[in-house]
Specification:
- With 199 residues, the protein is of the alpha/beta class.
- The chain has ten helices and nine strands.
- It has a single domain, classed as TIM Barrel (Alpha-Beta Barrel).
- Strand 2, helix 2 and strand 3 form a beta-alpha-beta unit.
- Helix 2 runs parallel beside helix 3.
- The longest helix has 12 residues.
- 39% of the residues are buried.
Length: 199
């Protein structure tokens, strides 16, 4: 799930509710301005059970801010080699955004084990599986994101993606929210841990 606020500290009540629902992965969108890294660092300390990441990392400045905040990973809507190299040099997992077959193949050739299919709603549910045969194995771990709702989670997983990310469409409460957020959490957590060199 991606949360957006110019003042990340204001997200604390929502993070608390999401944690109670059993959500594990939450991304906080980067915003330019003073205080973003400090406020995010405080949230990371306050919610150790959540695997917090930085979202909307599109520039070197955004990546530096995410590193200063102490995030364990970041996600970008774009595929930029400079950002990937900068993240790798800092031992930081950055998940790039892809859409076209060329972008998927380029990300794979650059050694990206995880990609974000964005905006997923634009290409449709069966898109990722249709890419598999012409591109060949192995395909990266795919997180479908952008325009999806809780009721889309199971059909998209069955259609071939590995995980589904929800944004504003994920409600703060209710069993549907908890189920959507828990989709394939173990495989993603293990992959992130492997990339970070953790046991």
């Amino acid at each position: 799930m991606v949360l957006r606020s110019w003042e990340p500290e204001r997200l604390a009540p929502r993070l608390h509710r999401l944690q109670l629902l059993g959500v594990r992965h939450v991304e906080i969108a980067w915003r330019p301005g003073q205080g973003w890294s400090d406020q995010c660092r405080q949230l990371i300390a306050a919610f150790p059970e959540l695997l917090l990441g930085a979202a909307s990392i599109c520039t070197p400045a955004a990546l530096v801010a995410a590193l200063e905040a102490g995030f364990s990973y970041g996600v970008s809507p774009v595929l930029e080699r400079q950002l990937l190299e900068q993240a790798a040099a800092a031992d930081f997992t950055l998940v790039p955004g892809v859409m076209t077959p060329t972008e998927v193949n380029r990300a794979r050739s650059w050694g990206c084990p995880i990609v974000k299919l964005f905006p997923a709603v634009t290409v449709g549910m069966g898109y990722w599986r249709r890419l598999a045969d012409p591109l060949g194995a192995p395909m990266p771990f795919c997180i479908a994101a952008g325009g999806l709702h809780p009721h889309d989670v199971r059909p998209w997983l069955e259609a071939g993606v590995d995980a589904v990310a929800l944004g504003a469409s994920l409600p703060d409460s209710g069993p549907e929210a908890a189920g959507a957020a828990a989709a394939h959490p173990d495989s993603l957590e293990q992959l992130l841990a492997d990339l970070a060199g953790q046991p």
